[in-house]
Write a structure and sequence with these properties.
The structure is a homotetramer. Chain A is an alpha/beta fold. Chain A folds into two domains: about 130 residues, Rossmann fold (3-Layer(aba) Sandwich); about 180 residues, Dihydrodipicolinate Reductase, domain 2, CATH 3.30.360. Chain A is built from ten helices and 16 strands. The first copy, chain A, has an eight-stranded mixed sheet with strand order 8-11-12-7-13-14-15-16. In chain A, strands 3-2-1-4-5-6 form a six-stranded parallel sheet, sandwiched between helices. A two-stranded antiparallel ribbon of chain A has the order 9-10. In chain A, α5 packs antiparallel against α10. Chain A starts with a strand and ends in a 12-residue tail after the last helix. Chains in contact: A-B, A-C, A-D, B-C, B-D, C-D. The interface between A and C is medium-sized, with 16 and 16 residues.
């Protein structure tokens, strides 16, 4: 099979861009049956020095300090946006105008309004898109969905989800761009972390109908490099009650100051006949419970990620051989290649990001008004 | 040391009464240094047959089918109330009038108003009381409190607690007295289970200032023995946002239909310098995290319950030798004996039960009004 | 049902005696359907002061400083031997001669020869006996046996067991009676701990045919109270290869210096169709794996101890409500009562103890000769 | 920094070769500070079709069906041997003769004699080598070594290790090349799996002085594709007692028929002051225990792999973000690049493989003679 080579134009070369590159490099080997493979065409960053270093380290053919050159490059099929949220809208709209596929990191834009603009533009121009809600790529998350859909655990009754980390838990941690609403967006923990667990909640329990959220900035000021301090402009933690459209209920919590939590993205999903539990710090394990006739032998079963959970792929060398965040990005790149070479969409796309953004907005509004808020889930086309 | 013998009058001989009896029988051996020991004087149940069988099995000297005889018995020092909530108020008021110490199971009364009546009467008559919030007796819960108080984990930032079980998770489970608001109270999962995690939250994170609760009865009707069905009168599950008086935030969840959850009373407590985690299904384990200078060696530590966690006691034969619900009741009886023989009060007493009831009431009210509600924490004396 | 009251004569009032007493006190309440109940008749210790204190704390009617009075007491039906191994033989032979049921702690006697003497005497006199291999009483161990016997996991292929603790792991820990071969026996870790995992191995995988053992005393001298040091006379740790009579293979390890191990009595049992795992530090959990047709959903299932695992008993108030070492002793007393009131024998008896002792002896011999040794399993009767 | 490009000649394109390729592709991005980077020059397999497909999928510039062309290729700096053991010796000797660096998968050669031949030839020719004992590359294994070396847990007292999997546990699993002593070597489970845990044991507890091993082939015959059955020529499982040169003791177990075990390579390492535990099915977690003055707060701490455990690398995006077998291979390729560009050797090399092979040989000999055997650890150079 001749695989279609798709030119990648990467904008940004920081932490998350590197994770994308790991995925680009693994994908062709890991998923030999997929029709497309990435070609690392050009990378940009804000200085030529950064861009050149990225090209060298990441293996891109060319580099530039002007992202517009990436967008307009005729050899670029896919524009990969790995910069802070403040630039998402402008870049994506340009990429859409240029007819490129858009691959964007979360949270998309500074607000759901920006995400909606992007999604509408993409819809109008019939441009495909994919957004980096990485945890959905976990084969165990796909197994969880399969278990929900096939009725193994009955109907979903409740979903209690969280995404806690502790990267800002030290009161002495310095002010970072993540604390700046003009760069990262008005949502803090919810924007960076909460959107992940919202994406999981929607995949497993359906669309969200109402939220009731409590949030706050525990450490209101943080130190700048010059020793002065600056006000933190978005929330450190949020707790929300959730009602799903299908009647299920639950909670979603998110914190960036949860001392001891490293990658605690997880959930308890309770069904009428069984239950699922997941904890991202044990990324390769899913817990499954089913009510059984022999009640003396019931219990949660620990299922380890295994090659069979990844149809068409050889990324996992064996069962319980570990799975890493970079592996999830490799699977995301597979989905990106499938998106680029077929009619189907693995999702989530920009429209989904706008919907998730609307849920985050509803949480922020609820936090301010202390009332239940129905997210204004946008209709895109 | 001559230990003071205290006459016990037990009212009710069902499931939880038996757990009390396990405690009565173990306590004198387990806590040789405590000044009082229980003497199993008289037990009552609604028929003589039940009462006699209980006296025989449990080792009580006498039995009766009239609880009033227990209350008025001159040899009874402590009235132990192990009947459904509908009878708590009447019995406790009679016991208080008779000058007896009151030891009552939770939830106390059909409502916080009833609990408050009882607490006020006890205060007026200067009667001591103890309420069966069993999980507080876990030596690891006392260790958790010590860790919070001594500053090991800094100040409490958030508390996410739950008490989930699945005893009503099967839609086909029959209507039980627990579904009858006239017997069990207007609170369902919150009354039976939620009050436990509220009691833990208050001990570790302080008094609760506001709640915002979502609750519902998922299985609105259940079958009676005669095949007809009856409406369930209290909630199957509840999720609440919590604000503590000291500024901490959090959530409390409770469900009796959480398929797969057996005794899932637990919490994540996050502090500014560390964190604690607990899961009641591993009753003998507490997880402790502290931020440390050598960041390459941080992690949650699994602390097993050990003899040293129980000063003055020899109930635990060794570290990690297991701890059971009955053991917690044995420790509760120790506290009861200390209450009866000293000036101090280990708590929680009827006044605390009224306070916890007020929090449950606020949750019910919030569930109905869909608004934040400040519990009307009663002032007793 | 009128339950038969059986007079208990307890010899020794230390640590393990107290655990027996917890069992005596719980059993009548926990197992209402069993035909016998214990009556705490008389307790002895080496001084009257100790004996009287024990009678007072434990609830025995009488006390004595002469164990022979216990054995000869006409009101005593069961002689309960809770003294160090050096006295087992003499006491048991006297009790057998007096026609009493013998209930003896492990390790039985200073050697398997002594245990065999006792077993032969009991057999000759048709005296019933029970030995305190406590972990066999765990309802999850009985479940494990049921799972093995009913073929759920196929035939047993291998058994890897251990019993590690760390009570002597500190090099500065003082010389104790457990280090004295004349009191505790010539086996150290194997005598105190290893015999437990041997008892489990035999129950689950059958009789042991051959052993090959490596053992040593890591801390050869320990300090006495007077500051001088004394040679430790038995091993600190042992590792053994095992061959079972039925063809299964495995290992048994035991250490009293395993830093960090508190009650680490556990095993991995591998069958042709499934597997079991157990760790005593999580006493209420059994892990079960079965090969299944849907290979994407296989995994070890965590089964919590539940009331249904204990037929005829109400000791466990609910599933996952914890189980403690004392609870195991309560179940052991149930077995003792059934032994005393029926024709069947729950085992293990003195003959089994002699067999286990023979296996320990073979391990010691193998350790000395560095060769495979076939235990001389005694034939009793 | 200009990084030195090193030409890779890969021989074999199966399962493990692919894992190498994952490593080759990630390494330059993951370890920007390392002086060398791999250049995928040529790949061979037994047919041109296989070789070409591998070149295409893996990203090699050229392909061949003759491994000798790989060895003699002037653009090849490193010969990477990913074929069954029967071909190791011939290929490695040719590569050494051609002056290439040798990177070989385990088990090296059909026997330790073959491995020794290769190691001696490499030593004589001053050729560098690296062998794929992948688990040693785990940053947590390096942390474990650091913890042992810096005295945190005192001196090593015992090491109980295992590597169990279940890929041959189904009696109906077909005869594979792994069962053929002429292809895979005379060691079965020990050759494929046991060598890994031996490599870990040596790194953490030192060289092995004596072994005493019990082994067997449980399923003596397995079905061929044509329906006939063939005798399995090496062991399914092995259990060994171990004595280390420094006085520590322990056990090593290995099985390929351990139903339910997926990647159960792990150990309990006990020191005089602390302990370590590891289980490869939770590849990103190390458990550390240290005896502490506050005995009420001791316990095993779960340390998750974190960026700080990997100096100079950015492979891990964050703490507890997962780690996979492929990640270990990426770290192995880093070590290969460092080997190729510096004077130091990260090890293990062919000489180490010969030493590990000698230990496996001693186990096989012990299994046959039923006696303790001192491995004839070869002196190379």
């Amino acid at each position: 099979m001749a695989r279609k080579s798709l030119g990648i134009g990467l904008i940004g070369s920081g932490f998350i861009a590197r994770c994308h590159v790991f995925g680009y490099r693994q994908m062709p080997v890991a998923f030999p049956a997929v029709a497309g493979i990435p070609r690392l065409e050009i990378v940009s960053d804000i200085t030529m020095e950064l861009a050149e270093r990225a090209a060298d380290q990441f293996g891109f053919a060319r580099s530039t300090s002007d992202w517009k050159k990436v967008v307009s490059d005729p050899k670029v099929d896919i524009v990969d946006i790995c910069v802070p949220s403040q630039l998402h809208r402008e870049i994506a709209l340009a990429a859409i105008a240029a007819g490129k596929i858009v691959y964007c990191e979360k949270p998309v834009g500074l607000s759901s309004a920006e995400a909606k603009d992007m999604a509408l533009a993409a819809a109008k121009a019939r441009i495909k898109s994919l957004v980096g809600f990485t945890y959905l790529r976990n084969p165990l998350m796909q197994l969880a969905r399969e278990i929900v859909v096939d009725g193994t655990i009955g109907e979903v009754v409740s979903f209690a989800g969280l995404h806690n980390e502790d990267y800002m838990s030290d009161p002495a941690a310095p002010f970072s761009w993540r604390c700046d609403a003009g760069i990262a967006g008005k949502a803090g923990a919810l924007g960076d972390l909460g959107c992940h667990i919202i994406s999981i909640a929607r995949m497993l329990a359906g669309e969200i109908a109402e939220v009731n959220c409590d949030l706050r900035t525990v450490y209101a000021h943080r130190k700048l490099a010059d020793g002065t301090s600056r006000q933190v402009e978005n929330e450190d933690e949020a707790n929300a009650l959730i009602r799903f459209q299908n009647g299920a209920r639950g909670t979603i919590a998110s914190s960036r100051i949860a001392t001891g939590a490293k990658m605690r993205v997880g959930f308890d999903l309770i069904g009428t006949k069984g239950a699922l539990r997941f904890d991202g710090e044990r990324l390769g394990e899913l817990q499954l419970y089913t009510r059984e006739s022999n009640s003396g032998r019931v219990g949660f079963k620990t299922i380890y990620a295994a090659p069979g959970h990844l149809p068409g792929g050889v990324l996992l060398p064996g069962p319980a051989h570990g799975i890493s965040f970079n592996d999830l990005k490799t699977i995301e790149i597979r989905d990106l290649m499938e998106l680029a070479t077929s009619d189907g969409s693995p999702g989530p796309d920009l429209a989904d990001a706008a919907r998730i953004g609307a849920i985050v907005d509803a949480m922020l509004e609820s936090g301010a008004t202390r009332k239940w808020v129905a997210p204004r889930i946008p209709t895109i086309e």
